Amino acid sequence: QVRLVESGGELVQAGEYLRLSCTVFGRTFSKDVMGWYRQAPGKEREFVASISGNSGGIYYADSLQSRFIISRDNAKNTVYLQMFRVKPEDTAVYYCNVDSTDYWGQGTQVTVSS
């Protein structure tokens, strides 16, 4: 059974740093493109970043690429999202996804206070 487990979300102040993690269970992780998405209250889920299996292909939402970094550790079946200089508008539930599948994690809440 495939499971994705996100962690790292918390309440932080604007300008601080946060790192999210997503660990994948039950699947050969190293060949998967992995993505991070987020959903703010009252809004649609939106793309944040993605990373290919060998980390050679990395993509970001245009508005986030200057502050977010996606990475992965295939030995740990884990993908990370580093969030620098967070803003109140980054407040959302953050989800990871195995690209082109319906495999999603339960989400981790990030709340940024001003």
Structure in words:
The protein has strands at residues 3-7, 11-13, 18-25, 34-39, 46-51, 58-60, 68-73, 78-83, 92-98, 108-113. The mean pLDDT is 96. The chain has no helices and ten strands. With 114 residues, the chain is mostly beta strands. A six-stranded mixed sheet has the order 2-10-9-4-5-6, with no helix packed on it.
Report helical residue fraction.
under 10%
Cross-sheet strand order for the largest sheet: 2-10-9-4-5-6
Helix/strand-derived category reads mainly beta
**Low-pLDDT segments:** none
What is the rounded Rg? 13 Å
Sheet with the most strands, sense and barrel status? 6 strands, mixed
Please provide a brief summary of the model.
The protein has 114 residues and is an all-beta fold. The chain is 0% helix and 49% strand.
Looking at this protein, list some descriptive labels.
single chain, 114 residues, mainly beta, 6-stranded mixed sheet, 10 strands, 0% helix, globular
Summarize the helices and strands and which ones pair or pack:
Elements: E1 3-7, E2 11-13, E3 18-25, E4 34-39, E5 46-51, E6 58-60, E7 68-73, E8 78-83, E9 92-98, E10 108-113
Parallel strand pairs: 2-10
Antiparallel strand pairs: 1-3, 3-8, 4-5, 4-9, 5-6, 7-8, 9-10
